[in-house]
Amino acid sequence: MKFYTYFLAAALLLILSACTSDSDVEVTDEAGNTAEESSGGDLIASYATDVSSLDPAGQNDLPSDQRRNVIYEGLLYLNDDLEPEPRLASDYEQTDDTTWVFNLREGVTFHDGTEFNAEAVKANIERIVDPAVASSRANIFEMVSEVNVVDDYTVEIVTDYPFAALPNYLAHDAGGMVSKAVIDEDYQNAIDEGGADITLDEFYALRSEGGTEYEAVANQVGQHTGAIVEQKPVGTGYMKFQSRAPGENVVVERFDEYWDEPAKLDTITFKVVAEDASRIAELESGQSHFIQGFDNAQWDRIENHPDMETYPVYNLSNEYVGMNTQKGPLQDKRVRQAIGHLVDKEAIMEGIYYGVGRTMKGALQEEILGYNEDLEDLDYDPERAKALLEEAGYGDGFDLTIMTNDTPERVDLAILLQEEFKSAGINLSIEQLEWGAYLDAVSNGEHDLFILGWPNPVGDPDQGIWPLFHSSMQGTGGNRSFFDNEEVDSLLEEGRRELDLEKREQIYQEIDKILVEEQPSVFIRQAQSANAIRSEVEGLYINHFNKPDFRNVTINEQ
Question: Distance of CA 31 to CAs 4, 63, 165, 558, Å?
Answer without folding.
Answer: 12, 37, 46, 15
